[in-house]
């Protein structure tokens, strides 16, 4: 630790105060030092004086050998402006992080989630800042993260099922289009082709809807895997800063109690009589820990507020996107099917069958006449039967590719 000298000019507030508390002084301590700076006061706004700094003089008058009460009266008795001479304490904050402070920090972590009765039963003292509202916010944040995770899973399943449905529509379109191509009747062919194109249009509308809704997963993933973990990390840093600040507060209290006990016994305390540098170092560390704690608390409050706003706005936006996309898809499907009102479809199946029938497909054994003996067997030669059957068939004059004309319906089924 090193000490440098300086002076600072402070303007008093409306209550005739500069915003510091002092300790030490005669008769036990040879110096008067700053114990704490209060928020939003002239001293804290100026930022020159810090906890642990020694006060040397007030408006040119030395304070050596005076008690802290006398020094406080000197500051209040001057006018609106106070000039303070000081010796600034330069110390490494890591020097104040002893094993005792680390154990106190661990204790505060243990006590954090305990209720008062449990802590009292275990003999653990609880600090005022334990179980503050920001810690409860972390639990709410975890619940929100679980909601987003479930929403992402359901959205993925929905989009996968919807894509499968679009492929079914596409398959229907291909089947109906294939039927339309093979249908010999012109009117039926046009109807099947139109119905196939309608299903293909439905598949295109489904793909368009999927492309509209797909960014929903990316947005939810950003909130779940970036915004929430970042806020969670900030809360953990805030808790670490809070536990460190509470540990220094507890250490200062223990040192105050020790000094008070020695004063009651009218016994000297070595660290106090030599300038109380160890105590002043802990005061400086406490002030810096409090500054970090206040900054982290402010950051957590801002992030939680932004996250809550984003949560509300994001959920509303994503649901509106999903609902509007589904509504547009159903509207497009309705308009497509409304324009493809082709039922009933009239198809002459007999004509289709005869058109695709060749002679060789109808060669069969003649049916026996009624009344004949069931055991009787025809004795006609197969060649004669074929000759009789071919008498009714008119052969073409010119057969270029071995094709034959169709048999008349009445001759074929006699």
Gross geometry:
rod-shaped
- Return Rg in Å: 48 Å
Query: What is the ordering of alpha helices and beta strands?
Result: EEEHEEHEHHHHHHHHHH
Describe the biggest sheet?
6 strands, antiparallel
Distance between the termini: 125 Å
Residue share in helices? Answer: 55-70%
Mean pLDDT: 78
Got a strand count? 6
What portion of the residues fall into strands of 2 or more residues? 5-15%
Low-confidence stretches: 353-380, 385-414
Helical/strand content category: alpha+beta
Structure annotation, total helices: 12
Write up this protein.
Helix 3 crosses helix 7, helix 6 runs antiparallel to helix 9 and helix 7 packs antiparallel against helix 9. A hairpin with a 7-residue loop joins strand 2 and strand 3. The C terminus is likely disordered. This protein has 414 residues and is of the alpha+beta class. 60% of the residues lie in helices and 9% in strands.
Summarize the structure.
With 414 residues, the protein is an alpha+beta fold. The chain has helices at 42-46, 68-77, 99-112, 116-122, 133-182, 186-213, 215-264, 270-273, 277-338, 349-355, 382-390, 409-412, and strands spanning 2-11, 20-24, 32-37, 54-58, 61-62, 81-90.
